[in-house]
Amino acid sequence: MTVCVQERECLFGGISNGAMMMNNAGRMVEKVWHELSERFSNVANSESIVMPNHFHGIILLNECRGDPCDRPSF
Q: Domain extents for the chain?
């Protein structure tokens, strides 16, 4: 998934010498991401990266509630 900051403001830090330098807000986003699997038993988080004005992360859903998690047939 990708989450962008409103109006693409650089709220999570900046780039210096080709490296992301996270500020407190960027560190908060990273911390909350890593805690998702503790808060939600059916979630496993994978790779992620915090950028100055957006965040990329891969999230895996381990179990589904209700109907089977099959894609619809056409």
A: 2-61
